[in-house]
Design brief:
5-stranded antiparallel β-sheet; 1 helix; globular
Length: 323
């Protein structure tokens, strides 16, 4: 659905079981744009990056599909104070139209002597450390999806790092096992709960429509049992499937068992509960999301005639003793 092509909002960050504010708009050794797609120059994801490291840095990027399969990658240098625009339609290469995935931008290693000509050398394809005084305050970014025909620009907050990668990861050959966690997202704990907004009219793909997107660093495949509430606090237990391991989205209007009168409200989801139909031995990514410790975000993308443009709503999170 072109009108739902992209609008990403990060949920909250949880570390060591303690709730913290989600992080966007900060500098670190990398970032993630969790939902990326293009259908040509008139419908594309655009990312803006800023280097405040005090030196020239290599920025390695990788696009993964919804199951974290490696798709395409590259590297470009950024000098100090430089702003760089990254247009997915022009950077993705041929044959990538309509393919949904996510982007990881990571700052490579190397000292203050790097130049634009030497920054992307293979020897620098190791993640820069966050504690290195020479590379602190490195990279920040923002993103949006533009639909020229629909006259809509959907603001897309990125997920700030620091990034945590698997040991010995080469930034030029990242795979489904490389990205372990992202500090700006929520950390999955046994009692992590996300509240996901929906606003619909009962007619699929017409009028008021919502898509709910979930991105994680764990394997989220399976049918998740959740509570859905309307705007009068009435509750019904229902299920939604996540068919892809790390980037899924679904239409709450199609949830089986949703009461017909439930058109505006929230869905409460606990990613720390093992879904039914989950793979016994996840092959594509790391441990099942419910094993804990992985990063997760969720957000709602809403189209309504009264809005006149695509809206994105934060999937808020909390720790709760009961669900």
């Amino acid at each position: 659905m072109k009108k739902f092509a992209l609008a990403a909002v990060a949920a909250a960050a949880l570390t060591a079981g303690v709730a913290q504010a989600y992080t966007v708009g900060t500098f670190s050794n990398g970032l993630v744009v969790p939902n990326v797609i293009h259908n040509g120059a008139a419908n594309t994801t655009a990312v803006g990056l800023v280097n405040q490291s005090g030196r020239t840095i290599p920025v390695f990027w990788t696009w993964f599909d919804q199951n974290s399969n490696h798709g395409v990658d590259g590297c470009f240098p950024m000098t100090n104070k430089q702003y760089t625009g990254f247009n997915w339609a022009t950077s993705s290469g041929v044959g990538m139209e309509g393919k949904r995935g996510y982007l990881v931008f990571a700052v490579g290693s190397g000292g203050a002597a790097l130049t634009a000509a030497t920054a992307c050398a293979p020897a620098n394809a190791t993640l820069a450390t966050q504690v290195d005084a020479a590379t602190s305050g490195q990279l920040a970014g923002n993103a949006f999806y533009v639909d020229v025909a629909g006259k809509s620009v959907a603001f897309t907050p990125v997920i700030d790092g620091p990034l945590t990668l698997a040991a010995a990861t080469n930034l030029s050959t990242m795979d489904s096992q490389s990205l372990v966690s992202v500090a700006g997202a929520a950390t999955v704990a046994p009692t992590t709960q996300l509240s996901l907004r929906y606003f619909i009219d009962g007619t699929v793909n017409s009028g008021n429509d919502t898509r709910i997107t979930v991105w994680s660093t764990g394997n989220q495949i399976g049918t998740h049992t959740v509570n859905i509430y309307d705007n009068a606090q009435n509750r019904q237990s229902v299920n939604f499937p996540l068919a892809e391991s790390e980037l899924s989205w679904f239409d709450p209007e199609t949830i089986a068992g949703r009461p017909a009168a439930f058109l505006d409200g929230i869905i409460e989801w606990n990613p720390g509960v093992t879904p039914s139909g989950a793979p016994v031995a996840p092959a594509l990514v790391g441990p099942l999301l419910s094993a804990g410790g992985g990063s997760v975000i969720a957000y709602s993308t809403i189209v309504a005639p009264a809005f006149g443009a695509v809206q994105t709503l934060l999937g808020a999170h909390r720790l709760s003793a009961a669900f």
